Amino acid sequence: MLDNAIARIEKLRVEFETKDGTVAGVEDVSFDVGPGETVCIVGESGSGKSVSSLSLMRLIEFGGGEIANGRLIFDRKDGDELDLAKADQDLMRDIRGNEIGMIFQEPMTALNPVFTIERQLTEGLRVHRDMSKEQAQARALELMQQVRIPEPERRLKQYPHELSGGMRQRVVIAMALACKPRLLIADEPTTALDVTIQAEILALMDRLKRETGTAVMFITHDMAVVAQMADRVVVMFRGRKVEEGTVEEIFENPQHPYTKALLAAVPKLGEMKGKPLPEPMKLLGHEQDEIKPITGTDQPLLQVENLTTRFPVKGGFFRRTVANVHAVEDVSFTLNKGQTLSLVGESGCGKSTAGRSILRLVEPMRGRISLDGVDVMGLGPNMLRDERRQMQMIFQDPFASLNPQMQLADQVAEPMRNFGSHAGSEMMDRVEMLFDRVELPRSFMRRYPHELSGGQRQRIAIARALALNPKLIVADEAVSALDVSVQAQVVNLMMELQAELGLSYLFISHDMAVVERVSHNVGVMYLGRIVEIGPRAAVFENPQHPYTQALMKAVPVADPHRRKSEKDLNFKPIPSPIHPVGYEPEPNTYREVSPGHLVLTSDSGY
């Protein structure tokens, strides 16, 4: 045990009352966090890692939990030790935000939608630090600059919905740091972020920790982030601590079988060097037959030419269009049957809009889209509805894309009902077959979405997308919200289905290691344009465009000896994609570096 620990958790047990009796969310967990130290708590969803952090903040009572046993010793600023488990809520209100800061996983729900960013940033300062309005505003501006938000003066006057996910998360970090807390608890603070923003935020937290001596308790399931951030690591599994050690010990010599399985499931950037074709991962405990690469065919299925999508910005008294958001600008590519083309880039680069435009869920302004010889842009509403059988989408958030009031069997059968492709017992047989296909037990057919874990929900979304035997599946960040081992299983499942059914995927993602694993071809998007596109090996092993190079550099590697420092990351702030009406950018021109490997030569703004 550390003598000078800022926080010590001793034999913590947290219980939840359920219909089936009392369930222990965390059982007999002990660890401590010292000043200027980062302790990473890793494990999958349901392992109890967030429960232990919420107990320390005493927020677990509001989530239906109860601290049944254990001590939570916190070393306060004035040198007194306090057992937080026994502190009353008034005292906790004083400590929360002031001495213990918390960064939550989901920035949209952590911010209040009806208050400006400035009001939310200054509130804690005025309550805990008795600052005047002017002092609090000056400190808020300083915090916004510290977390590198562009145009901070303008952003302070905006509301949360006007900011991108990465910016919201930075605001949440600024709020947590506002009162210079002694302990910072970060609960999956980078899960929903892009590689480059994640790299910046990790470097930012690391720098702030060194400058202020704050202790950091960092909760995550991403082993590459652990390698980047941790001094010590606590591995949790089913509510218990199964292993603890320094970051080097855990990565180089893991002892517990669960830790070994967790490290085996992490796709590492560079693993596919020298392998031209994608292939499934080897997972511990899933002894597959020999792993076969997926070849696909060289027949084009989807051809996209000069696709442009813009959204109007309304303003003024008559709500006229005053400007346009150039979301997708002159994008062209070809996807072959049975192959995967990945679009990568940061949030706001237009990759999801490109995917939705191809399915015409968003109407493109111009361009040609041809799916297996059918001109998708030329179809009227009825013909388009029929053509939708051939193209399906898997969305990022499986909970939001499923109907909470329908049983899962009905949700998977719904596309077949809508299109009248199957009926009666034939339809139920197909639903059962689809459940088998995505490796879910048939007993789940009677369940509802809230009774499943995130990974199981995503499998239902995949089964539903397969119901009509589509030729093209657009997977929009389909695995980004999943745990490492679940993500590895879902990725393997998608690749097996591709090999068996000859599916083509347009795979939209910001996770470079997963993209390297699954792709035949990769397109890198920046500010609505494809800046580099080509065979996966060419783009990953010989990136030519400066943006692609910066993106590759930002990817954290699951090896504690290869940490990134802040000076490695030289990102330029992303310019605004909003241009006045009448602005026409120059068309994209490319040069061919090697066969099929194209790099943008016209000015991309990077």
From TrEMBL:
Region listing for Disordered, in residue ranges: 585-606
Cell compartment(s), UniProt: Cell inner membrane
SUPFAM superfamilies assigned to the protein according to its UniProt record, in alphabetical order: P-loop containing nucleoside triphosphate hydrolases
Occurrences of domain ABC transporter (ranges): 7-263, 302-552
GO molecular function: ATP binding; ATP hydrolysis activity
InterPro entries: AAA+_ATPase, ABC_Ni/Peptide_Import, ABC_transporter-like_ATP-bd, ABC_transporter-like_CS, Oligopep_ABC_C, P-loop_NTPase
Coiled coil region boundaries: none
This protein's name: Peptide/nickel/opine uptake family ABC transporter, ATP-binding protein, putative
Organism (species): Salipiger bermudensis (strain DSM 26914 / JCM 13377 / KCTC 12554 / HTCC2601) (Pelagibaca bermudensis)
